[in-house]
Design a protein that fits this description.
Elements (H helix, E strand, L loop, with lengths): L2 H4 L7 H7 L7 E3 L14 E8 L5 E2 L12 E2 L13 E2 L4 E6 L5 E16 L6 E2 L45 E9 L2 E8 L2 E4 L4 E15 L3 E3 L7 H10 L3 H8 L5 H4 L10 E3 L1 H8 L3 E11 L2 E8 L5 E4 L4 E4 L4 E7 L5 E6 L4 E6 L9 E2 L1 E2 L7 E7 L5 E6 L6 E6 L9 E5 L8 E8 L2 E6 L4 E4 L4 E4 L7 E8 L2 E6 L3 E5 L4 E3 L16 E8 L2 E6 L2 E4 L1
Parallel strand pairs: 23-27
Antiparallel strand pairs: 1-15, 2-12, 3-4, 5-8, 6-10, 7-12, 9-10, 11-12, 13-14, 15-16, 16-17, 17-18, 19-20, 20-21, 21-22, 24-25, 25-26, 26-27, 28-29, 29-30, 30-31, 32-33, 33-34, 34-35, 36-37, 37-38
């Protein structure tokens, strides 16, 4: 597998990433500038679910050596019970609550508790543990069988010494465990709805309450909207609390969106919330352009503010602006931390690069042969440890600009050479390199050019509109998107027009421009643009 294939590549998914969180591609965002360069934590959020304990039965057993009768408090229907050696037998209720991806739980509490106290005729005696299978379903319904993870067994209350004056358990919430269930970030909350005071032979019964989970949203969002078979989604809808969040991800059951969920390919983009980046940079206006990450704590974010810097490093909690003396538009890299950003210094094309061993905020200037006097670069594709292509526009009679990383440069990507592409007659906006002998560039007026390792040829796109992005999974699977809802696919021999008639259903008379495409694999392709997000 090539370095390109193993790299975390989010550059072309920018519009997709922004659209997932309510931001259109290349959307200008205004905000109040702050002096702080630190990322402020997201405000705490809460999810509240109803909790009722009336469907549980508490068994009371005879005290050894006495003639007291066995007694029981029947609430509604039996439920499963857990106990620890030498402790009374008390039921544990498990709530499985869906949270925002990457959230950190701050606390769990019961509010608006309705309870009653009942004197007992007999003491509750200790019993030996009885194994209880940790099934997700607690209502007797046969669970949907699939490759779902096994949930850990509910926690056993840590009781005080039997026969003491202290209530057992002291807190009805005995354990809060952040976990995952399939693709979902959940918190498992184990609750004992009974409180027993052995010395007084009294039992407090929690009949109902609101379970409140306070959590801190993550600034790095993991979009875990994996697309299960409808039966699995139906189980999640039924079993996981906080159904509003599930509905917002998938749509209500029975809708065309839910019925269309058939693919098993995961989509798990790690995305930094754009507003976090903007607030941290403290600039007056910003166009979010690109994000590249190697893991959840190493992100480089690229945009177009009113003043430099236009790139920053994000470690998961703090944003560090990087001064490059350039306005940068394109970003790509390798999983080892090699980063290449391209743009303009307001006059000449500019390339900035980072070596893997350097500090995350250290970027160096790269040279371009011929030292072009004007122009800018807008897209870059890093193919390997010494190979990369970048495209854009130049002034004069040759408006197109293509540069290639010099393979002998030391350090890598420190020197780039201009390339003549059939006279550079068109301004270019996108580049995709499948390998060293299969490189495509595209741009204005439907122009597409192909490099076979020795020469460039023009390929017919069949459309007159500007093409804004390219991506693919190999030499026979290449995609292009452009203005007026244009979607093209290259199958190894010719380009086919697969454009949606009206990508923006809210405004059928005006199809939106498509600006970004991300080909995850041969079966999964994401397309983003102005107010539109498409998935194949």
């Amino acid at each position: 597998m090539t370095e390109q294939a193993t790299s975390t590549r989010i550059r072309r998914a920018t519009a997709v990433a922004l659209a997932l969180f309510g931001f259109g591609a290349l959307l200008a965002v205004g905000f109040v500038a702050t002096k702080s360069r630190k990322v402020t934590r997201q405000p705490q959020q809460e999810v509240i679910v109803a909790f009722t304990a009336q469907s549980h039965t508490l068994e009371l057993m005879d005290r050894p050596g006495t003639t007291e009768k066995q007694t029981a408090i029947n609430l509604d229907q039996p439920s499963r019970f857990l106990q620890d050696t030498g402790k009374p037998k008390l039921p544990v209720v498990r709530k499985i609550i869906l949270l925002a991806p990457g959230a950190t739980v701050q606390r769990a509490r019961l509010n608006n508790v309705r309870q009653r106290t009942q004197a007992l005729e007999a003491a509750i005696v200790p019993v030996q543990p009885t194994p209880v299978p940790p099934e997700l379903n607690q209502d007797g319904v046969e669970p949907v069988t699939d490759t779902l993870p096994t949930l850990p067994a509910p926690a056993v209350p840590d009781a005080s010494v039997y026969e003491s004056a202290s209530a057992y358990p002291e807190d009805p919430i005995v354990k809060v465990t952040p976990d995952q269930w399939g693709p979902y970030d959940v918190v498992l909350v184990d609750i004992v709805p009974f409180s027993y005071r052995p010395k007084d032979h009294e039992l407090t019964i929690i009949e109902s309450a609101n379970l409140v989970i306070t959590y801190q949203p993550s600034t790095v969002q993991h979009d875990r909207r994996q697309f299960f078979r409808p039966a699995i989604l139906a189980q999640a809808m039924k079993e996981l609390e906080n159904p509003e969040m599930l509905a917002s991800w998938y749509g209500e059951l029975g809708t065309p969106e839910a019925a269309a969920i058939t693919s098993t390919a995961p989509i798990d983009l790690s995305i930094v919330r754009p507003n976090v980046f903007l607030d941290a940079l403290g600039v007056s206006a910003f166009q979010a352009l690109a994000i590249f990450g190697t893991d959840a704590t190493h992100f480089w974010l690229l945009g177009q503010p009113s003043t430099d810097p236009s790139i920053a490093f994000f470690d998961g909690s703090t944003t560090s602006p990087i001064t490059t003396n350039a306005y940068l538009y394109g970003l790509d890299g390798l999983i080892d931390g090699t980063i290449v950003a391209v743009g303009s210094d307001q006059v000449q094309p500019a390339i900035r690069f980072r070596r893997p061993a350097d500090q995350p905020t250290t970027f160096l200037n790269a040279s371009i042969s011929g030292n072009p006097s004007s122009g800018n670069l807008v897209d870059v594709d890093v193919l390997g440890s010494t190979t990369g292509w970048a495209v854009g526009s130049a002034g004069g009679t040759q408006p197109g600009l293509v540069v290639r990383a010099r393979s002998t440069a030391s350090p890598a990507f420190s020197a780039w050479d201009q390339v003549d592409v059939l006279g550079n007659a068109q301004r270019l906006r996108a580049v995709y390199a499948a390998d060293a002998t299969h490189v495509w560039v595209a741009g204005e007026n439907g122009s597409i050019f192909f490099y076979n390792g020795s020469a460039w040829v023009s390929q017919s796109s069949g459309v007159p509109v500007h093409l804004n992005d390219l991506d693919g999974t190999g030499t026979n699977d290449v995609w292009a998107v452009g203005d007026a809802g244009t979607i093209l696919h290259f199958n190894g021999s010719a380009w086919q027009n697969l454009s949606a008639t009206n990508p923006d259903r809210r405004n059928p008379s005006s199809p939106d421009n498509l600006t970004d495409i991300e080909a995850v694999d041969a079966a999964t392709v994401w397309v983003g643009g102005t107010n539109v997000l498409l998935q194949r």
